[in-house]
Please model this.
Amino acid sequence: MPELPEVQNVCIGLTNTVVGQTIARVSVRRRDIVHGPSRPNNLLHSQTITRIDRLGKQIALVSQTPGNRKTPSRQACICIHLGMTGSLRFYPKDEPHKPDTHTHVIWHLNSGGRLTFRDPRRFGGLWTFDSVASLIETRWSRLGEDALTITPSGLHAKLQRTRRAIKSALLDQAVLAGLGNIYVDELLFGCGVHPLRPGCDVSRPEIQKLIRRMRALLTRAIRLGGSTLRDYKDASGRPGGFQHYHQVYGQSGQPCPSCGQPLACTTISGRTTVYCETCQS
Ligand SMILES: [Zn+2]
Model:
């Protein structure tokens, strides 16, 4: 599943390609992936994409239509969750594109380019809103702070309240938005924190270290284009490169990069968890 670094790369790609472009026509090929009103104007028909927002693993395409003396200015936005296998891909005018049965929405742009939403397993989807304010109110207010901007005191306040394993808490998007299985395992290894430690037992200095490491880990992963395990590609169809730098994720039984002991494996919150019994306590 794409996590914060992969989603951020999609946002960077969209900012460089579709922001400033006007949507000439929208073709919805599978209606049940659109939640909320799905009239053409809800899907940004005839509107210009003015910016791309992100919170955690969710993306928002935002349009702003300037007003005049007769009509007030209007904003609309589409929130997109990529789920397990979703992708947003931009095709310039001269790049051929043949939609398949998993291509659910195509935005035809005035430039002749196209933006597509494709999702074979359909755990992702699109949510339409009249404004960014209504997206925040109905959907994003349920999420915790973004993993790139959360402060040590913000995370401390959330973790203090839970006896759940730190790994479960960090995976919970209501605690912290953006991390998934890959980056939580990498982060806890990097900090020497055992994934089963109760959240409330993680000390203030450890949380400060965790936040510092998390920012460094996510920033490096973003710079390397994110991690591609199976499906993930950015908005131009390029895979990421950070999978070559994973230290523990997916490497159960392999020697720990720090002490050489075989890495251990357990299941936490239904997710395979790899860690070092010697280096993480
Ligand atoms: Zn070790």
Q: What stands out?
A: The chain is about 25% helix and 25% strand. Residues 256, 258-259, 261, 276, 278-279 surround zinc ion (CB under 6 Å). Residues 204-223 form the longest helix (20 residues).
